[in-house]
Amino acid sequence: MAIALSALVEEANNYLNVSRIADYCPNGLQVEGRPHVQRIVSGVTASQALLDAAVEANADVVLVHHGYFWKNESPVVTGMKQRRLKTLLAHDISLLAYHLPLDLHPEVGNNVRLAHELGITCEGTLDPTDPKCLVWVGSLDNPESPQDVARRVHIALGRQPLLVEGDNPVRKIAWCTGGAQGYIDQAIAAGVDLYLTGEASEQTFHSARENGISFIAAGHHATERYGVQALGQYLARRFAIEHLFIDCPNPI
Fold first, then answer.
1. Residues that constitute the known binding site
2. CATH number for position 91
3. Helix (H) / strand (E) containing 121
């Protein structure tokens, strides 16, 4: 069974409240392909590797978290950008991308789905009055050592995380997927035991160490694999079409 591309895009846009969220890139349909959809291939980033895999899988739509046309990037279509767009256009494949709307969503969002993978009970965002707050807070059922939490992350994500060990056992956790190390000060102010994100900067170590908080960098790609899978599964159920998640490994 095939459905109209326009219906798929409308459903995804409405479900993620795209019109209400300002972002650094266009959310929704970024490249238009064939008008009907039977199979979605999802992945974290619209890399050449994912596009080639989508062609091999006979995809009609590629659904990603990291798409194209970012603020302040060059508008010229040369080199890597030319090759990627050429692949999509030559095979009549649409590109559907959702950045911040996919981070924020309370059901299929990256942050909520990561908490599910790690066994963290979600308690909401650090600022419930701000609909654009990206940092979530929650807790473990029982206190664990920082090393045990790092092992939990390793097992769930299949990747050895970077751990800066704090002073206390961990029960209350704040987290934000991807490149969100800059939010560590908000986590410290909230009094959590551990802050978890995808990446780390040089100063992150000092902020964690001098404030007695544990910090885990679990990988940008690794922490953002789950939202796009959940969105793809939602759309597949909604329209009785096929969905295939393809993980193109990325150690960062």
1. 65-66, 103, 220, 224
2. 3.40.1390.30
3. strand 121-125
Count CB-CB contacts under 10 A for residue 237.
10
Pairing mode, strands 121-125 and 170-176: unpaired
Is the full-model pTM beyond 0.85? yes
Annotated binding site for a divalent metal cation: 65-66, 103, 220, 224
pLDDT in tens, 100-151: 999 999 999 999 999 999 999 999 999 999 988 999 999 999 999 999 999 9
Tell me, what amino acid is at 185? Answer: D
Query: Do 46 and 91 belong together in one domain?
Result: yes
- Are residues 57 and 141 both part of a single domain? no
**Is the same domain home to 94 and 182?**
no
- Domain extent, residue 169, equals 104-223
Asked if residue 85 belongs to a domain, the reply is: yes
- Please write the tens of the pLDDT for every residue from 90-101: 999 999 999 999
